[in-house]
Amino acid sequence: MIRERVQALLRDVASGAVSADAALAALSSDPVEELAHSTVDHHRALRQGYPEVIYGAGKATEQVLDLCASIASRDGRFLVTRTTDAQRATLAARFPSARVSSVARTVRLGGLADSGGADAPRRVLVVTAGTSDLPVAEEAIETLAALGLGAARLVDVGVAGIHRLLSRTDDLMAAGVVIVVAGMDGALPSVVGGLVRVPVIAVPTSVGYGASFGGLAPLLTMLNSCSAGVTVCNIDNGFGAAMAAARSLGA
Amino acid sequence: MIRERVQALLRDVASGAVSADAALAALSSDPVEELAHSTVDHHRALRQGYPEVIYGAGKATEQVLDLCASIASRDGRFLVTRTTDAQRATLAARFPSARVSSVARTVRLGGLADSGGADAPRRVLVVTAGTSDLPVAEEAIETLAALGLGAARLVDVGVAGIHRLLSRTDDLMAAGVVIVVAGMDGALPSVVGGLVRVPVIAVPTSVGYGASFGGLAPLLTMLNSCSAGVTVCNIDNGFGAAMAAARSLGA
Amino acid sequence: MIRERVQALLRDVASGAVSADAALAALSSDPVEELAHSTVDHHRALRQGYPEVIYGAGKATEQVLDLCASIASRDGRFLVTRTTDAQRATLAARFPSARVSSVARTVRLGGLADSGGADAPRRVLVVTAGTSDLPVAEEAIETLAALGLGAARLVDVGVAGIHRLLSRTDDLMAAGVVIVVAGMDGALPSVVGGLVRVPVIAVPTSVGYGASFGGLAPLLTMLNSCSAGVTVCNIDNGFGAAMAAARSLGA
Amino acid sequence: MIRERVQALLRDVASGAVSADAALAALSSDPVEELAHSTVDHHRALRQGYPEVIYGAGKATEQVLDLCASIASRDGRFLVTRTTDAQRATLAARFPSARVSSVARTVRLGGLADSGGADAPRRVLVVTAGTSDLPVAEEAIETLAALGLGAARLVDVGVAGIHRLLSRTDDLMAAGVVIVVAGMDGALPSVVGGLVRVPVIAVPTSVGYGASFGGLAPLLTMLNSCSAGVTVCNIDNGFGAAMAAARSLGA
Amino acid sequence: MIRERVQALLRDVASGAVSADAALAALSSDPVEELAHSTVDHHRALRQGYPEVIYGAGKATEQVLDLCASIASRDGRFLVTRTTDAQRATLAARFPSARVSSVARTVRLGGLADSGGADAPRRVLVVTAGTSDLPVAEEAIETLAALGLGAARLVDVGVAGIHRLLSRTDDLMAAGVVIVVAGMDGALPSVVGGLVRVPVIAVPTSVGYGASFGGLAPLLTMLNSCSAGVTVCNIDNGFGAAMAAARSLGA
Amino acid sequence: MIRERVQALLRDVASGAVSADAALAALSSDPVEELAHSTVDHHRALRQGYPEVIYGAGKATEQVLDLCASIASRDGRFLVTRTTDAQRATLAARFPSARVSSVARTVRLGGLADSGGADAPRRVLVVTAGTSDLPVAEEAIETLAALGLGAARLVDVGVAGIHRLLSRTDDLMAAGVVIVVAGMDGALPSVVGGLVRVPVIAVPTSVGYGASFGGLAPLLTMLNSCSAGVTVCNIDNGFGAAMAAARSLGA
Amino acid sequence: MIRERVQALLRDVASGAVSADAALAALSSDPVEELAHSTVDHHRALRQGYPEVIYGAGKATEQVLDLCASIASRDGRFLVTRTTDAQRATLAARFPSARVSSVARTVRLGGLADSGGADAPRRVLVVTAGTSDLPVAEEAIETLAALGLGAARLVDVGVAGIHRLLSRTDDLMAAGVVIVVAGMDGALPSVVGGLVRVPVIAVPTSVGYGASFGGLAPLLTMLNSCSAGVTVCNIDNGFGAAMAAARSLGA
Amino acid sequence: MIRERVQALLRDVASGAVSADAALAALSSDPVEELAHSTVDHHRALRQGYPEVIYGAGKATEQVLDLCASIASRDGRFLVTRTTDAQRATLAARFPSARVSSVARTVRLGGLADSGGADAPRRVLVVTAGTSDLPVAEEAIETLAALGLGAARLVDVGVAGIHRLLSRTDDLMAAGVVIVVAGMDGALPSVVGGLVRVPVIAVPTSVGYGASFGGLAPLLTMLNSCSAGVTVCNIDNGFGAAMAAARSLGA
User: pTM for this one?
Assistant: First the structure.
């Protein structure tokens, strides 16, 4: 594609339709905006289908506000993850139509009206092993909603009571992608992976007793899954799982 | 589906078309074959589209032969990974039409004639950072071929010479799924993930100097990828990456 | 058992005593209650002898309250572990007859009146290496009491003063199961394991100086115990140790 | 007991029935035999029901022979684990009636004639996730047989094909203790622990891809099991699991 | 010694000077006091020369007070380490003559009047690499003072300015034991170990940047010291280093 | 040099120009100042070109003030890193001409007026992967300024949008040293290292999701960089990177 | 530079001196040669001053030969590291003028005749803590020689005998860059870093007792060096250290 | 001491008894011998009481021979540890009076005739938990013998049979220093440390099942010992423990 643009530009220069200086400018223009503290990648929406997502943790509230304003002005939408209470309050005041989730710790402008809605063409099923895994699951669901993808929930169906999962086999079979969120032993993705043919994206969480070591235990479990083709995201990274689902669904 | 079968069976019992004992037998019959040393999951081909794949490492050659024979007799095909030299020799003798790859350490019956062929409907691109990552890449390609999926290779394009990768942007853009195999710093999937919209499946390898710690370094790199939606397989697990690609492509 | 129920049901259907639709409903009914945030496994009391235990950490107080109410309404008892101060206060107000332990951080409805009482048919002895290990020991004792099992305590008998332990050999010999709770070097279970024939369940605690690494040191010690047949629970997991003791005692 | 013996002895001394020197000798005699390289604990058979088990790895063949001879002369039986080929050959020649298992790498004198036999009063069920976990399972079974305990096998029923396990629920329900041996993700004990009430002893194995890190992955999985009361042994330690089962069964 | 006491006692019983019951009581009496929460090892002062030291962290202030009172009543002295502010305030009020160090976080009754004094027969030199290592050094010095051992300080002489250490070679040569406290790279004990013949006890501290991993880095450095015969204590464990010095000096 | 001074001194002694006692004093005088809590290395300015830098973390404000006063009195400048808010306030009041950076957490007396200025003879380029890496970058820039070295910034150019970096190739090419600061996957130094010939100093940061493990992930990435000759500093150690740059530039 | 080439090319196209198609070809031509197994980066010699270095480990001997031939044909020189015996023998036969070092495990064509020679304008000093660190030091020296840089050696001067190092202060002072190679405690770079102003590049080695953990111990030591501005390479990576030295010297 | 030598030398120069040049030479002469591959620290015998000990692992046999010859020529004795079979054979041939231990893997010239003899003034007791720990214990005993220190053995008295240890309390009480060698759980030093007042030097060994992680488990156990004042050496480092014992005994 870039090749075609260069080729066309060169022909225009050869024909005199475009001057050498103008062509140079066109080739040099960088779809990047430099704020004082960040380099916004405006090209990303074109390249990957969604503008750059803002990671709130460790950023000043004003930095987040600047970034949201910059992105919203170009794309009319944004998503911020890992927000603080202060960031959420400030963004809610500045962007009254933004959707704020305190469980998921996200703020988004645009996307699906109902984050768990059934209106998307191909469904994602987000499964959790326990109740404590919900914040990570909600981060995934809000991210999917920002991307225009509907999601269903199947909560608290860990392998210690395997019939809870097996009784929902129909829901599993109907999903286009399954995101499995689990802490502690992280065993659930292996069972799910053996039941469905579609992509299974495993997300370890930091929920658990001491030898979980902040999520290391379920992370290793999932990487060693005996169900072939299960892939793994970073600990507590519901956002990444949603983005992987979107890649798989062509969203 | 299972529910429908039970429902139908019960109606047959109610109508007398099927006796209670026969129905019980039908409900009890398990699509599993018990060998002396293994429990073959013949149901898997129905459930997941491909019969159980045999992991050769740590198994006696006779065990592997038994398993291949059992699976081939039902499904007419098989795939064995992580074979020893002895296993490959024995299987080649027993199954003359099997395809043997000493680089990938695989033996397979059935699948694509040409493992790197271009005859599959949606293409997988397997990218490696270095030459030493080839065995893992080949394991992925042979697995894909067993599943009937064609794959292209892009070898030795690590980020230390970034133009090697960027000059192949067209190939990256054309792929339906990209598998990225890298040892050492494991940085390549992050760059690839920023260039394409499709699923990027990262496979760390155990290639590297001391502080690679057997592949731990690239594994952590990939889990922490700054390109959203990159997912990760186990170290050196080309097989798993291929299975994940197949899940994504609906193969 | 499930097999027998299916068999009986099928005969009833065959004889017309039960309709096909009623049989299907019976086979389909799932002993699971879906709250907004959790899937309560009511079947567990039947399957494992005690209803699902609630893990308080990371749950909202209202979620814990919902779960307690749901379980108490079916089973007339419950146990919550790892409660916060707020959870304990709320539960104490809502369930006046519940027993609250601020040391163990547990709340329970039902079970033994006296958590360390001697009224149970087979005794569990809970041994600690130090005073700082008490909260974990108390979690075990409260859990045992919830299950109707009495327990004796033997506190602060670490191996640095081995005669403290040896002078209590009679108590050790009299126990049906010994739970050994130890931080720091975690050496105590190895000594106890060499003195008694009954199950020895080792629980590492996170008590200790820097190189304890949050309990990793005693965990590894216990896994490598030179006393054969000592088994190990997660760090600080007094609850799990009590459940293992109950499994062993057939409680 | 030791207290009663001291009391009786003192009374005999007081009555003149035993001289002070003889009493001193009796109190001093240590049920320990010092070989050049080892201190045999002959008291263990009295204290724990089975003589000291010999760990073959890292010992010279002559050392192992000495130890076997010393123990056999007192107790008429012995068990050696982790033997080398040379040790097995030498012991087989020296003790023709010993039972040698090259899979389990054990040699034993005495115990059950048929290591997997059904003649023991309470049965142990040894379950494995995969075929490659067999050597560890066999070590457990041979150890149980040495202790006079029969065991049944349930092999290759990992969670990736969960119906293989569920179809054997009756066998699980019938067991007095379940030993679950699993490598890779180590997820199987969590599922088994949710199905049965009896002790579940989990044994991680070193079978797996790179990020198993020699069995660390399934070890952590099992320690973090969401099924309450599952306890854990060291990596590949089938012997320890059998000893724990014996403690639980009162064997 | 115990043997001699038994022999003497038996002779007394034989001669009628001591009754059998009295002898039994003497043999049975255990020098242990059981508080509600602790088992005080009063025998330790006899066995090891100093009463049991109290570890304040994780204990309630009242528990610490009980223990101090129990020990002071028998031995007229005590040492508490890792105290909280509240513990120090309470102990200072209850024991007006106790010495309190807020830097070392210790409280002690008895011992040297001047913790860094030069009045002890053999001197301990406590060396630190940096100023931030002082709290650990002071814990060592206060513990030594409690044991009646004087200590000298040599502070902030890390290897980045090696002449600071070398200019104090005389002090190093004069010491009977050298305790070296260092965080960050933990390199100082290796240099000191090469300069002196006496025991060098290395204490890693948790002072440092990220890759110190809470003191793991200097801990490993010290364990791998190229100066032969350097031994190592736990991270931040100034108390343990002092006790080791006392063992070496026969204190 | 020291050799020459000794030689000259000895000749002066031989000629009688210097007395033996005076020579001894000269040889013995140590360029070290002992405060109560620190040993100031005044010789360092002579030996390494800049006086000892003060690490604020874990030091009392008065200790820091003492050290600053001691160093300023000799050298007329100082640098304090990792300051607390209280330290910065106190130092600003005491040294009104000091430059305080709350982002970098540094206070310095002397050095460049403009920390990011272009007035230094050879330029350092400080590159960050993300906005959250800024505090570490600023610590590097302030340290460089203290040393009289100008620096340019290139912020938020992580590899997920590789064109952001490539569009700034000219800046990269113009730098004398490049410091690359990155958290998460830490992939940026490998790409930069492949683009420039000059020293590339990589600094991992603790910014990231769970499996970053406090910066371990990017640290390992950078140590395993496939770009030859990239070297690595401690996690979050912007100060160390600046000092390494100064060594390379001969500053 | 690339910008200037594009600008010039565009002007030539505008003037008709170059056709659009030729310009496209020029812009598209990739300085990369694709072998069957590798993508040779011929552009690297232009970009970084030395052609791509070949890492022998894990490559087939024929692959190495192909790569050497490809690079030698363009650049007249090559360097292979981590060679096997077979690779060295084959390369020596094929390239009779190549220099082979069995200690360093390198083969190189071109560069300095005498790898430790004094003929380079700015000298590198390679220091080792022990004799066992020599292979890593020699890899660095051979790499430097390939780049045309002379190096001096200072071997076996670990900190346990600090006077061995201090007696060579003149040599340290004279070096332009110091590479310090150390296993075990890895303490040497901290001392060297305090003595010199020039770049100090630390290389940990895998030499040592158990708790070295394959070089992890000295790696962490060096990353935590209390000498500011010391930077670190991967374990055993003498090659990387030499490349870093070359970057610093502008070679 | 060095100070006094300088003072005396200067007075001699002042009086004309020594010329300035001769004094300079005396001050400059370094007690170090540079071989091609090593820098022998001949000063160590003077400084630390025993010449430099040679670590055989990773050295060529000729290098070891050179070092032995160099040291023997000055000091008439030497000690080599971690020798290979070839090194032992070569040294035995070259130094017929050397003592060779294949268990300890040591070769020594000089020292006690009988390594376990009772002829030394203060005794060291070397205790092992198991038979497999013997090689490490023997390395300690041979090192002690080289230093002229006698040692007694107490072998295979691990805590699983605690009476084996307690029955030897007299031997423990009689020792001047106790070295405790243990693998697996590493619990023995904690028990020993509680029984004796003298220095207890703990040596972890790499003996054990998988979760020993090469000796990491007992290493951590020992560092966290609840017996105050136990210090720790590197894994399998019997040599270091002996050197520490010698430091403590003033040998």
Answer: 0.88
